[in-house]
Amino acid sequence: MNNFEFKNPTKIIFGKDTIKKLENEIPNDAKVLLLYGGGSIKKNGIYDQVKIALANVDVIEFGGIPANPEYAVLMEALKVIKDENITYLLAVGGGSVIDGTKFLSAAALFKGDTPWDILSKNMKTEKGMPFGTVLTLPATGSEMNSGSVITRKETKEKLAMGGPGLFPVFSILDPQVVHSIPERQLANGLMDAFTHVLEQYMTYPIGALLQDRFSESIMQTVIEVAPKVLKDPTDYKAASNFMWSCTMALNGLIQKGVPTDWAVHAIGHELTALFRIDHARTLAVITPSHYKFNFEAKKEKLAQYAERVWNITEGSIDDKAYAAIEKTEAFFHELGIDTKLSDYTKNYEGTAETISKRFTDRGWLGLGEHQSLSPDKVEKIIKMAY
């Protein structure tokens, strides 16, 4: 196992009717900017619960943060923060709203002239404006980590940021919010969480026995609860296991001491930026091709995954590894998610070359756990996914 350091300061408040505990978490003298997305929280009752809990706090609202949080919209929110002397941020939403809030947390204290530099220059934020979250859509794990991904429509870019100053102070996770989530978004959340685990697991054996079993247990749980959540989102037992699996998939724990990949996400972000495809669905497009292209480097871990997660015990290492890829793709299809780029756009010709060039222009010489996926290899993986 590799050396590592681990600190996660986010306080988790999990369970039924926990949104009301919000009043105990935000300082009474704070001036709060309440951030949310398209307004679904006003239809499902979450907004009312939040407002009641914040009755004694000075609150200004900013809605309309889109899926794949848009830089231009966030700059409007940043102006509100500056003009209104906001001291505390509260994200009420899914990963997009929380990611956008993390950018604002960093940008609010940023000393430079162009906040986009935080992303384009990969700056690590050591201190941001304090913020909390009320999670409304399990998927990204953003409620318990310090990472964020922001989109800039005008340049068709989607870039990541982070740093130790961007952990939420607290996150409230009430699984009852799952009741009102549309089936497409539930499928996306299941897909996102599953792939987050794969990115931290599907590399090569390093003797991190506990870390492997943490990862395998999360994947097994997602596989088990997926059909239950999709069939009946009011199933509290399934919803609570789904929500906690999403959080545990990307709160930093399972990646400690092990190599990680993240090439699927890097490529997927480009597909979202270019075609506005749901983030989770870009992962489904790239994952099978990525594993097939890098089969020799990943087959030992693929075979282990086949045995422990899919109960495939017959055949050679190669046999089990191939079967694992097939099982994974079949699972994505069971979620109702297509796995070819041509399923999402008919304008896919030239996509591989465009993304390869972007990586070259950014100086990204190699992706993956071995940093061996040069832009020309990325091009081949994308073409396999057409």
Describe the structure.
This protein has helices at 46-53, 71-83, 95-108, 117-120, 183-201, 209-231, 236-249, 263-275, 279-293, 295-310, 317-334, 351-361, 375-384, and strands at 11-14, 31-35, 58-62, 88-93, 131-135, 147-152, 157-162, 170-173. With 386 residues, the protein is α/β, with parallel strands linked by helices. The protein folds into 2 domains: 11-176, Rossmann fold, CATH 3.40.50.1970; 182-384, Dehydroquinate synthase-like - alpha domain (Dehydroquinate synthase-like, alpha domain), CATH 1.20.1090. The chain has a 6-stranded parallel sheet, with helices on both faces. Helix 5 (183-201) runs parallel beside helix 9 and helix 12 (351-361) packs antiparallel against helix 13. The protein is globular and about 65 Å long. The chain starts with 10 loop residues before the first strand and ends with a helix. The model has no long low-confidence stretch (mean pLDDT 96).
